[in-house]
Structure formats: structure tokens, C-alpha cells
Amino acid sequence: MPVVIAFASQKGGVGKSTLARALATFAVGHGLRAKLADLDLQQKTAVVWDNARAAHCMRPAVDVEPFTSAMAAIGSAKNYDLLIMDTAGKITEDTTEVSQYANLLVQPTSPSADDLHISVLVFLAMERVSIPRNRLAFALCRVLSPQEEKGARAHLESFGYAVLNGAIPEELAYRDAMKLGRSIGETGRKQLDRRVEEVMTDILRKAGANIDRMRSRRSR
Fold first, then answer.
1. How is domain 3-210 classified at the architecture level of CATH?
2. How many other C-beta atoms are found inside a 10 Å radius of the C-beta of residue 163?
3. What is the pLDDT of residue 191?
4. Which residues, at least 6 apart from 213, have a Cβ–Cβ distance to it below 8 Å?
5. Using alpha carbons only, how large is the chain's radius of gyration in Å?
6. Which of 85, 124, 90, 125 is nearest to 105 (CA)?
7. CA 14, 20, 23, 29 torsion-angle sign
8. Is the pTM of this model over 0.85?
9. What's the confidence (pLDDT) of residue 1?
10. pLDDT in tens, 94-114
């Protein structure tokens, strides 16, 4: 069975699909067999991005596929190291199903007061349906300053939730990269790419995805 990492949020535009794509390219670039499951069949953001990636001949190639359910995605990924599930931009019963299978559920949030409030409510709801707190983690996105990051991190941690190391700043270079089918970790600007790498590395660590062990197992 693959390690399963899911991205969910109550609203769009906070970085859910952006982080899912970044994790997929990061994992594949580090030699893992990773699959990105697009569970938002209305927008198919990951699928559209993958088409742009192919059109611009970007490497490494990423295995992206739309699915109607978490169970269908998991059934297709038995020979993969990592299954990344990108859910719709709202919390539904499908999100609860996804959460039941995920080794880690990542919820991106901006540092705005409105987003932080809603994000905490989402994780409280996840706990009410028996998702353990140690399988939940926040990712800070669209950050404008170190002070803003620090304040948002302290607020979320005050509720006892994990917040991933690092943060994704609000940068035009990230948007430009995705127009070409790149991920935000592929801007070519070292400082920006390193910030993404820090977040991706912590996601894999918190999910229990040991890159070296996975490579060793596959090489036998």
C-alpha cells in the first residue's frame, strides 16, 4: 500500500491544489513512484495542469488521474510509493472518506483571520468524525511577511495542531510557473524553490514517508 497524503480545505484559493502538485513533482523528482489523484471532477485542476505540463514538455512526468472516490484512487495505486489526493475546494462527505484513508491530511490556509478561523473549524470537525489529531497538519500559504507567518503559526498551534515547517509566500513567480505546467517548486529561483522544498520535506516526514527506505525497497 502507498503512503496516502490528502489535501483538503473548506474554500478555494488557499493553496490546496498548488501544494498537491508541488508534492507530486517533488516526490517524483526524488525517485518515488507517486500518483496524483484529482478528486474534484468539476474543476479537474490537477488534470488541466498535467495537460499544460505535457504540452510544455516538462520533466519529470507526473502520473495524474481523475477519480470519483478515494477508494477508487487507492485501488489504482497499489504499486506506488505515494498517493496524493487533491480534493474539491469544500468539505463534504467525500472529504471525510478521504480522511479515513490518509496517513496525513494537510489543510492549507492563508494567515488572514477569516481563513484561520474556518481552518480550525474544519479540523475540529475532522476530529469529531474520529480523525486523529496526529494525522492532521496545517500548511501556511500566501504569506506576506515573517511576522505574519509567526502570528498565524502561533494561533494554529494554540489549538494543539501541527503546522508544517516553512511557509509558501505570495509570489508572482509561483503563478507564472504553474501557467507552464510547472509546480511552485520548479520556478528556477533557488530561494523560492527552497521554501517549497522545506514544506514538502516536512509533509513526507509527518506522513511517515521515508524516501530512502522507499527507494531501497524498490531496488531489491
1. 3-Layer(aba) Sandwich (3.40)
2. 19
3. 96
4. none
5. 16
6. 85
7. negative
8. yes
9. 83
10. 777 888 889 999 999 999 999
